[in-house]
Amino acid sequence: MKKPNVVVLGAGYGGLMTVTRLQKMIGVNEASITLVNKHDYHYESTWLHEAAAGTLHHERVRYAIADVIDQSKVKFIQDTVEKINLEEKQVLLQNHEPLTYDYLVVALGFESETFGIKGLKEYAFSIANVNAARQIREHIEYQFATYSTEEEKRDERLTIVVGGAGFTGIEFLGELVNRVPELCREYDVDPNRVRIICVEAAPTVLPGFDPELVEYAVNVLEKKGVEFKIGTAIKECTPEGIIVSKDDQVEEIKAGTVVWAAGVRGSRVIDESGFEAMRGRVKVDPFLRAPGHEDVFVVGDCALIINEETNRPYPPTAQIAMQQGEVCAKNLAVLIRGQGELQPFKPDLKGTVCSLGHDDAIGVVFGKKIWGTKASVMKKVIDNRALYLIGGPTLVAKKGKFKLL
Ligand code: FAD
Protein backbone atom coordinates (compact mmCIF):
# COMPACT_ATOMS: atom_id res chain seq x y z
CA MET A 1 0.00 0.00 0.00
CA LYS A 2 1.19 3.54 -0.80
CA LYS A 3 2.58 5.46 2.16
CA PRO A 4 0.52 8.60 2.85
CA ASN A 5 2.26 11.94 2.34
CA VAL A 6 2.07 14.14 5.41
CA VAL A 7 3.13 17.73 4.75
CA VAL A 8 3.65 20.16 7.66
CA LEU A 9 3.93 23.86 6.84
CA GLY A 10 5.82 25.99 9.37
CA ALA A 11 8.38 25.02 12.02
CA GLY A 12 7.13 27.24 14.83
CA TYR A 13 5.70 25.88 18.08
CA GLY A 14 2.69 24.18 16.46
CA GLY A 15 4.49 22.71 13.44
CA LEU A 16 7.57 21.46 15.27
CA MET A 17 5.51 19.97 18.07
CA THR A 18 3.43 18.08 15.48
CA VAL A 19 6.51 16.75 13.69
CA THR A 20 8.59 15.85 16.76
CA ARG A 21 5.64 13.96 18.31
CA LEU A 22 4.64 12.25 15.05
CA GLN A 23 8.19 11.05 14.33
CA LYS A 24 8.13 9.21 17.66
CA MET A 25 4.72 7.67 17.02
CA ILE A 26 5.13 6.18 13.57
CA GLY A 27 7.63 3.94 11.81
CA VAL A 28 9.68 4.88 8.69
CA ASN A 29 7.46 2.72 6.49
CA GLU A 30 4.14 4.10 7.67
CA ALA A 31 4.21 7.59 6.16
CA SER A 32 6.38 10.13 4.35
CA ILE A 33 6.65 13.28 6.43
CA THR A 34 7.80 16.57 4.88
CA LEU A 35 8.35 19.74 6.89
CA VAL A 36 8.55 23.10 5.08
CA ASN A 37 9.84 26.28 6.71
CA LYS A 38 11.15 29.61 5.44
CA HIS A 39 14.41 29.23 7.34
CA ASP A 40 16.49 26.26 8.44
CA TYR A 41 16.01 27.32 12.05
CA HIS A 42 13.17 27.58 14.55
CA TYR A 43 12.91 30.74 16.62
CA GLU A 44 11.28 31.13 20.00
CA SER A 45 8.68 33.77 19.10
CA THR A 46 8.00 34.24 22.82
CA TRP A 47 11.59 35.52 23.29
CA LEU A 48 11.63 37.92 20.35
CA HIS A 49 11.01 41.01 22.51
CA GLU A 50 14.35 40.32 24.20
CA ALA A 51 16.21 40.16 20.88
CA ALA A 52 14.37 43.31 19.74
CA ALA A 53 15.43 45.27 22.83
CA GLY A 54 18.95 43.87 22.64
CA THR A 55 18.89 42.19 26.05
CA LEU A 56 19.32 38.70 24.53
CA HIS A 57 21.47 37.90 21.49
CA HIS A 58 19.42 36.70 18.51
CA GLU A 59 21.48 33.49 18.29
CA ARG A 60 20.09 32.52 21.69
CA VAL A 61 16.56 32.81 20.33
CA ARG A 62 16.93 30.32 17.48
CA TYR A 63 18.10 26.75 16.91
CA ALA A 64 18.64 24.51 13.90
CA ILE A 65 15.58 22.50 12.84
CA ALA A 66 17.98 19.65 11.96
CA ASP A 67 18.79 19.36 15.69
CA VAL A 68 15.27 18.28 16.63
CA ILE A 69 13.91 16.31 13.68
CA ASP A 70 14.65 12.67 12.96
CA GLN A 71 15.99 12.92 9.44
CA SER A 72 15.40 9.23 8.77
CA LYS A 73 11.67 9.95 9.04
CA VAL A 74 11.24 13.62 8.18
CA LYS A 75 12.33 15.39 5.00
CA PHE A 76 12.99 19.08 5.57
CA ILE A 77 12.53 21.63 2.77
CA GLN A 78 13.67 25.19 3.32
CA ASP A 79 11.31 27.35 1.27
CA THR A 80 8.49 29.86 1.44
CA VAL A 81 4.94 28.60 1.06
CA GLU A 82 3.03 30.75 -1.42
CA LYS A 83 -0.35 29.08 -1.62
CA ILE A 84 -2.23 25.88 -0.87
CA ASN A 85 -4.26 24.49 -3.73
CA LEU A 86 -7.01 22.73 -1.77
CA GLU A 87 -8.70 21.17 -4.81
CA GLU A 88 -5.51 19.58 -6.16
CA LYS A 89 -4.11 18.86 -2.65
CA GLN A 90 -0.94 20.69 -3.52
CA VAL A 91 1.30 23.23 -1.79
CA LEU A 92 2.93 25.83 -4.02
CA LEU A 93 6.43 26.86 -2.95
CA GLN A 94 8.61 29.76 -4.05
CA ASN A 95 11.65 27.75 -5.15
CA HIS A 96 10.65 24.08 -5.30
CA GLU A 97 8.20 22.00 -7.31
CA PRO A 98 4.68 21.84 -5.81
CA LEU A 99 4.24 19.29 -3.00
CA THR A 100 1.32 16.87 -3.05
CA TYR A 101 -0.23 15.80 0.25
CA ASP A 102 -2.62 13.25 1.65
CA TYR A 103 -2.65 15.07 4.99
CA LEU A 104 -1.64 18.68 5.47
CA VAL A 105 -0.84 20.60 8.66
CA VAL A 106 -0.89 24.37 8.33
CA ALA A 107 1.20 25.95 11.10
CA LEU A 108 2.41 29.15 9.46
CA GLY A 109 1.98 31.34 12.54
CA PHE A 110 1.35 35.04 12.89
CA GLU A 111 2.00 38.28 11.03
CA SER A 112 1.65 41.85 12.19
CA GLU A 113 -1.84 43.36 11.75
CA THR A 114 -1.93 47.13 11.29
CA PHE A 115 -5.74 47.44 10.93
CA GLY A 116 -5.25 49.84 8.00
CA ILE A 117 -3.70 52.57 10.21
CA LYS A 118 -1.98 54.93 7.81
CA GLY A 119 1.82 54.74 7.68
CA LEU A 120 2.29 51.87 10.18
CA LYS A 121 3.42 49.38 7.54
CA GLU A 122 5.88 51.87 6.08
CA TYR A 123 7.33 53.57 9.15
CA ALA A 124 6.77 51.37 12.22
CA PHE A 125 8.67 48.24 13.16
CA SER A 126 7.02 45.07 14.39
CA ILE A 127 8.42 42.20 16.46
CA ALA A 128 7.42 39.59 13.90
CA ASN A 129 10.43 37.30 13.49
CA VAL A 130 14.15 37.06 14.30
CA ASN A 131 15.34 39.41 11.57
CA ALA A 132 12.65 41.98 12.34
CA ALA A 133 13.73 41.86 16.00
CA ARG A 134 17.39 42.33 15.01
CA GLN A 135 16.40 45.30 12.86
CA ILE A 136 14.68 46.98 15.84
CA ARG A 137 17.71 46.44 18.07
CA GLU A 138 20.07 47.83 15.39
CA HIS A 139 17.79 50.78 14.66
CA ILE A 140 17.55 51.86 18.30
CA GLU A 141 21.29 51.52 18.74
CA TYR A 142 21.85 53.56 15.55
CA GLN A 143 19.66 56.35 16.95
CA PHE A 144 21.79 56.51 20.10
CA ALA A 145 25.03 56.40 18.10
CA THR A 146 23.85 59.16 15.74
CA TYR A 147 22.62 61.33 18.61
CA SER A 148 25.97 61.11 20.31
CA THR A 149 27.83 62.32 17.20
CA GLU A 150 25.47 64.92 15.67
CA GLU A 151 26.25 68.56 16.35
CA GLU A 152 22.69 69.79 16.54
CA LYS A 153 21.11 67.34 18.93
CA ARG A 154 17.62 66.14 17.97
CA ASP A 155 16.14 64.77 21.20
CA GLU A 156 13.26 63.09 19.35
CA ARG A 157 15.82 60.60 18.03
CA LEU A 158 15.83 59.19 21.56
CA THR A 159 12.06 58.88 21.78
CA ILE A 160 10.82 55.32 21.43
CA VAL A 161 7.08 54.79 20.97
CA VAL A 162 5.56 51.37 21.63
CA GLY A 163 2.11 50.99 20.12
CA GLY A 164 0.05 48.66 22.30
CA ALA A 165 0.05 47.80 26.01
CA GLY A 166 -0.95 44.18 25.48
CA PHE A 167 1.30 41.24 26.30
CA THR A 168 3.94 41.84 23.61
CA GLY A 169 4.06 45.62 24.18
CA ILE A 170 4.51 45.26 27.95
CA GLU A 171 7.14 42.51 27.66
CA PHE A 172 9.08 44.64 25.16
CA LEU A 173 8.88 47.69 27.44
CA GLY A 174 10.18 45.58 30.32
CA GLU A 175 13.32 44.77 28.31
CA LEU A 176 13.67 48.27 26.91
CA VAL A 177 13.80 49.94 30.33
CA ASN A 178 16.74 47.69 31.19
CA ARG A 179 18.51 48.19 27.86
CA VAL A 180 18.22 51.99 27.64
CA PRO A 181 20.50 52.76 30.64
CA GLU A 182 23.14 50.51 29.03
CA LEU A 183 22.80 52.37 25.71
CA CYS A 184 23.11 55.70 27.52
CA ARG A 185 26.37 54.54 29.11
CA GLU A 186 27.69 53.07 25.85
CA TYR A 187 26.99 56.24 23.81
CA ASP A 188 27.48 58.97 26.49
CA VAL A 189 23.84 59.99 26.31
CA ASP A 190 22.09 61.81 29.16
CA PRO A 191 19.27 59.44 30.29
CA ASN A 192 17.01 62.44 30.87
CA ARG A 193 16.90 62.99 27.08
CA VAL A 194 15.34 59.56 26.45
CA ARG A 195 11.57 59.09 26.33
CA ILE A 196 9.81 55.74 26.21
CA ILE A 197 6.11 56.19 25.48
CA CYS A 198 3.48 53.47 25.38
CA VAL A 199 0.29 54.32 23.50
CA GLU A 200 -2.77 52.12 24.05
CA ALA A 201 -6.24 52.65 22.60
CA ALA A 202 -8.01 50.46 25.19
CA PRO A 203 -8.91 52.00 28.57
CA THR A 204 -6.37 49.82 30.40
CA VAL A 205 -2.93 48.26 30.19
CA LEU A 206 -2.97 44.47 29.62
CA PRO A 207 -6.72 44.18 29.04
CA GLY A 208 -8.10 41.01 30.62
CA PHE A 209 -5.25 40.65 33.17
CA ASP A 210 -5.84 40.82 36.93
CA PRO A 211 -6.13 44.56 37.85
CA GLU A 212 -3.79 44.26 40.88
CA LEU A 213 -1.08 42.71 38.74
CA VAL A 214 -1.64 45.34 36.05
CA GLU A 215 -1.12 48.05 38.66
CA TYR A 216 2.10 46.35 39.76
CA ALA A 217 3.37 46.22 36.15
CA VAL A 218 2.48 49.85 35.45
CA ASN A 219 4.23 51.01 38.66
CA VAL A 220 7.38 49.05 37.82
CA LEU A 221 7.54 50.40 34.28
CA GLU A 222 6.65 53.98 35.23
CA LYS A 223 9.37 53.99 37.90
CA LYS A 224 11.83 52.99 35.18
CA GLY A 225 10.69 55.84 32.95
CA VAL A 226 7.81 54.63 30.76
CA GLU A 227 5.09 57.20 30.01
CA PHE A 228 1.72 55.55 29.43
CA LYS A 229 -0.87 57.17 27.17
CA ILE A 230 -3.94 55.02 27.76
CA GLY A 231 -7.27 55.38 25.93
CA THR A 232 -5.24 57.00 23.17
CA ALA A 233 -5.43 55.82 19.58
CA ILE A 234 -2.62 55.97 17.02
CA LYS A 235 -4.18 57.63 13.97
CA GLU A 236 -1.14 57.74 11.74
CA CYS A 237 2.54 56.91 11.66
CA THR A 238 4.85 59.21 9.72
CA PRO A 239 8.62 59.33 9.09
CA GLU A 240 8.76 61.79 12.03
CA GLY A 241 6.73 59.84 14.59
CA ILE A 242 3.04 59.29 15.30
CA ILE A 243 -0.21 61.22 15.40
CA VAL A 244 -2.53 60.21 18.25
CA SER A 245 -5.96 61.23 19.37
CA LYS A 246 -7.73 61.16 22.73
CA ASP A 247 -11.17 62.67 23.37
CA ASP A 248 -11.01 64.49 20.00
CA GLN A 249 -7.64 66.05 20.92
CA VAL A 250 -5.04 65.34 18.27
CA GLU A 251 -1.35 65.32 19.17
CA GLU A 252 1.84 64.68 17.21
CA ILE A 253 4.60 62.77 19.03
CA LYS A 254 7.96 63.01 17.30
CA ALA A 255 9.94 59.80 17.66
CA GLY A 256 13.01 58.18 16.16
CA THR A 257 11.57 54.71 16.70
CA VAL A 258 8.00 53.43 16.56
CA VAL A 259 7.35 49.76 17.36
CA TRP A 260 3.87 48.44 16.63
CA ALA A 261 2.97 45.69 19.09
CA ALA A 262 -0.80 45.94 19.09
CA GLY A 263 -2.03 43.37 16.66
CA VAL A 264 -1.37 40.03 15.05
CA ARG A 265 -3.23 37.98 12.46
CA GLY A 266 -2.75 34.52 11.00
CA SER A 267 -0.66 33.94 7.89
CA ARG A 268 -1.71 35.55 4.62
CA VAL A 269 -1.31 32.13 2.95
CA ILE A 270 -4.61 31.21 4.66
CA ASP A 271 -6.50 34.00 2.86
CA GLU A 272 -4.71 33.44 -0.43
CA SER A 273 -5.60 29.74 -0.40
CA GLY A 274 -9.33 30.33 -0.12
CA PHE A 275 -9.95 29.03 3.42
CA GLU A 276 -12.95 30.47 5.21
CA ALA A 277 -11.12 32.62 7.76
CA MET A 278 -11.07 35.74 9.92
CA ARG A 279 -7.80 37.67 9.70
CA GLY A 280 -5.90 34.59 8.59
CA ARG A 281 -7.39 32.35 11.30
CA VAL A 282 -9.49 29.31 10.40
CA LYS A 283 -12.26 28.29 12.81
CA VAL A 284 -11.29 24.63 13.08
CA ASP A 285 -13.49 21.65 13.96
CA PRO A 286 -13.00 19.88 17.34
CA PHE A 287 -10.24 17.72 15.78
CA LEU A 288 -8.35 20.79 14.47
CA ARG A 289 -9.41 20.32 10.83
CA ALA A 290 -10.45 23.08 8.45
CA PRO A 291 -14.22 22.92 7.81
CA GLY A 292 -14.93 21.10 4.55
CA HIS A 293 -11.33 19.79 4.32
CA GLU A 294 -10.95 16.69 6.47
CA ASP A 295 -7.38 16.16 5.28
CA VAL A 296 -6.21 19.63 6.37
CA PHE A 297 -5.29 20.39 10.00
CA VAL A 298 -4.65 23.96 11.14
CA VAL A 299 -2.73 24.61 14.38
CA GLY A 300 -1.26 27.56 16.25
CA ASP A 301 -1.95 31.19 15.39
CA CYS A 302 -3.63 30.25 12.08
CA ALA A 303 -6.33 28.33 14.00
CA LEU A 304 -9.25 29.91 15.78
CA ILE A 305 -11.06 28.14 18.58
CA ILE A 306 -13.81 29.55 20.73
CA ASN A 307 -13.69 29.51 24.52
CA GLU A 308 -17.18 28.31 25.33
CA GLU A 309 -17.11 29.93 28.78
CA THR A 310 -16.62 33.42 27.38
CA ASN A 311 -17.89 32.83 23.83
CA ARG A 312 -14.77 34.59 22.58
CA PRO A 313 -11.77 33.18 20.69
CA TYR A 314 -8.83 31.98 22.78
CA PRO A 315 -5.93 34.40 22.33
CA PRO A 316 -3.22 32.97 20.07
CA THR A 317 -0.43 31.65 22.31
CA ALA A 318 2.55 29.34 22.13
CA GLN A 319 0.98 27.34 24.96
CA ILE A 320 -2.08 26.53 22.83
CA ALA A 321 -0.02 26.03 19.63
CA MET A 322 2.09 23.34 21.34
CA GLN A 323 -0.90 21.57 22.85
CA GLN A 324 -2.56 21.59 19.42
CA GLY A 325 0.59 20.15 17.84
CA GLU A 326 0.46 17.25 20.27
CA VAL A 327 -3.20 16.45 19.50
CA CYS A 328 -2.63 16.94 15.77
CA ALA A 329 0.22 14.39 15.81
CA LYS A 330 -2.03 11.87 17.59
CA ASN A 331 -4.82 12.42 15.07
CA LEU A 332 -2.44 12.05 12.13
CA ALA A 333 -1.21 8.74 13.56
CA VAL A 334 -4.84 7.52 13.80
CA LEU A 335 -5.50 8.50 10.16
CA ILE A 336 -2.22 7.04 8.87
CA ARG A 337 -2.94 3.70 10.54
CA GLY A 338 -6.68 3.76 9.91
CA GLN A 339 -7.09 2.66 13.55
CA GLY A 340 -8.43 4.34 16.66
CA GLU A 341 -10.45 7.47 17.17
CA LEU A 342 -9.65 11.07 16.54
CA GLN A 343 -9.05 13.09 19.72
CA PRO A 344 -10.84 16.41 20.15
CA PHE A 345 -8.71 19.38 21.19
CA LYS A 346 -9.32 20.92 24.61
CA PRO A 347 -6.90 23.62 25.78
CA ASP A 348 -5.38 22.92 29.19
CA LEU A 349 -4.43 26.43 30.27
CA LYS A 350 -1.88 26.39 33.05
CA GLY A 351 -1.60 30.15 33.32
CA THR A 352 0.08 33.20 31.86
CA VAL A 353 3.24 34.99 32.93
CA CYS A 354 4.18 38.37 31.47
CA SER A 355 7.80 39.39 31.94
CA LEU A 356 8.87 42.88 33.00
CA GLY A 357 12.53 42.46 32.15
CA HIS A 358 14.89 39.64 33.14
CA ASP A 359 14.27 40.02 36.88
CA ASP A 360 10.59 40.86 37.24
CA ALA A 361 7.24 39.58 35.98
CA ILE A 362 3.57 39.18 36.79
CA GLY A 363 1.36 36.18 36.24
CA VAL A 364 -1.42 33.84 37.18
CA VAL A 365 -0.29 30.21 37.35
CA PHE A 366 -2.67 27.37 38.28
CA GLY A 367 -5.09 30.09 39.40
CA LYS A 368 -2.56 31.75 41.77
CA LYS A 369 -1.32 35.31 41.36
CA ILE A 370 2.46 35.73 41.35
CA TRP A 371 4.74 38.71 40.80
CA GLY A 372 8.33 39.88 41.25
CA THR A 373 11.14 37.34 41.60
CA LYS A 374 8.83 34.34 41.89
CA ALA A 375 7.04 35.23 38.65
CA SER A 376 10.32 35.92 36.91
CA VAL A 377 11.72 32.51 37.86
CA MET A 378 8.45 30.91 36.72
CA LYS A 379 8.75 32.67 33.34
CA LYS A 380 12.16 31.09 32.79
CA VAL A 381 10.83 27.68 33.82
CA ILE A 382 8.08 28.11 31.18
CA ASP A 383 10.64 29.16 28.55
CA ASN A 384 12.81 26.13 29.31
CA ARG A 385 9.78 23.83 29.29
CA ALA A 386 8.96 24.87 25.71
CA LEU A 387 12.50 23.87 24.68
CA TYR A 388 12.19 20.58 26.59
CA LEU A 389 8.87 19.61 24.98
CA ILE A 390 10.32 19.94 21.47
CA GLY A 391 14.01 19.09 21.84
CA GLY A 392 14.33 17.30 25.19
CA PRO A 393 17.13 17.86 27.74
CA THR A 394 19.82 18.35 25.05
CA LEU A 395 18.06 21.43 23.68
CA VAL A 396 17.47 22.79 27.18
CA ALA A 397 21.18 22.37 27.94
CA LYS A 398 22.07 24.23 24.72
CA LYS A 399 19.54 27.06 24.72
CA GLY A 400 17.92 27.14 28.15
CA LYS A 401 17.75 30.10 30.50
CA PHE A 402 19.65 29.17 33.65
CA LYS A 403 20.54 32.56 35.04
CA LEU A 404 17.35 32.81 36.99
CA LEU A 405 17.79 36.45 38.02
P1 FAD B 1 5.11 30.60 14.90
O1 FAD B 1 5.78 30.26 16.17
O2 FAD B 1 4.96 32.01 14.49
O3 FAD B 1 5.86 29.82 13.72
C1 FAD B 1 5.51 29.93 12.38
C2 FAD B 1 6.64 29.38 11.52
O4 FAD B 1 6.22 29.40 10.15
C3 FAD B 1 7.91 30.22 11.61
O5 FAD B 1 9.03 29.37 11.66
C4 FAD B 1 7.91 31.01 10.29
O6 FAD B 1 9.20 31.34 9.82
C5 FAD B 1 7.24 30.01 9.34
N1 FAD B 1 6.56 30.63 8.21
C6 FAD B 1 5.70 31.68 8.24
N2 FAD B 1 5.25 31.94 7.00
C7 FAD B 1 5.84 31.05 6.17
C8 FAD B 1 5.75 30.78 4.78
N3 FAD B 1 4.95 31.49 3.98
N4 FAD B 1 6.49 29.78 4.28
C9 FAD B 1 7.30 29.03 5.07
N5 FAD B 1 7.41 29.23 6.40
C10 FAD B 1 6.69 30.21 6.94
N6 FAD B 1 2.68 33.09 23.72
C11 FAD B 1 2.68 32.46 24.92
O7 FAD B 1 2.02 31.42 25.07
N7 FAD B 1 3.38 32.97 25.98
C12 FAD B 1 4.17 34.07 25.87
O8 FAD B 1 4.82 34.49 26.84
C13 FAD B 1 4.22 34.75 24.61
N8 FAD B 1 5.01 35.83 24.44
C14 FAD B 1 5.12 36.40 23.20
C15 FAD B 1 6.03 37.44 23.04
C16 FAD B 1 6.20 38.02 21.78
C17 FAD B 1 7.19 39.14 21.61
C18 FAD B 1 5.44 37.54 20.67
C19 FAD B 1 5.63 38.15 19.31
C20 FAD B 1 4.54 36.50 20.84
C21 FAD B 1 4.37 35.91 22.10
N9 FAD B 1 3.49 34.84 22.30
C22 FAD B 1 3.43 34.22 23.53
C23 FAD B 1 2.66 34.32 21.20
C24 FAD B 1 3.34 33.12 20.53
O9 FAD B 1 4.65 33.47 20.17
C25 FAD B 1 2.56 32.66 19.30
O10 FAD B 1 1.24 32.40 19.68
C26 FAD B 1 3.21 31.39 18.73
O11 FAD B 1 4.49 31.69 18.22
C27 FAD B 1 2.36 30.75 17.64
O12 FAD B 1 2.97 29.57 17.23
P2 FAD B 1 2.80 29.03 15.76
O13 FAD B 1 3.39 27.67 15.72
O14 FAD B 1 1.40 29.21 15.30
O15 FAD B 1 3.66 30.01 14.84
CATH class of the largest domain: Alpha Beta
CATH architecture of the largest domain: 3-Layer(bba) Sandwich
Low-confidence stretches: none
User: Strand order, biggest sheet?
Assistant: 5-2-1-9-22-21
3D shape: globular
Small-molecule binders here are: flavin-adenine dinucleotide
Supply Rg. 22 Å
Fraction of residues in helix:
25-40%
CATH fold-level assignment of the largest domain: FAD/NAD(P)-binding domain
Indicate the proportion of strand residues: 25-35%
- Write down the overall mean pLDDT: 96
Pfam family, one: Pyr_redox_2
Organism: Anoxybacillus flavithermus
Domain FAD/NAD(P)-binding: 5-325
Protein name: NAD(P)/FAD-dependent oxidoreductase
Describe this entry's structure for a reader.
With 405 residues, the chain is of the alpha/beta class. Helix content is 33%, strand content 28%. The chain contains ten helices and 28 strands. It has a six-stranded mixed sheet with strand order 5-2-1-9-22-21, covered by helices on one side. α1 packs across α10. It starts with a strand and ends in a 6-residue tail after the last helix. The mean pLDDT is 96. The structure holds flavin-adenine dinucleotide (FAD). Flavin-adenine dinucleotide binds next to α1, β2, α2, α6 and α9.
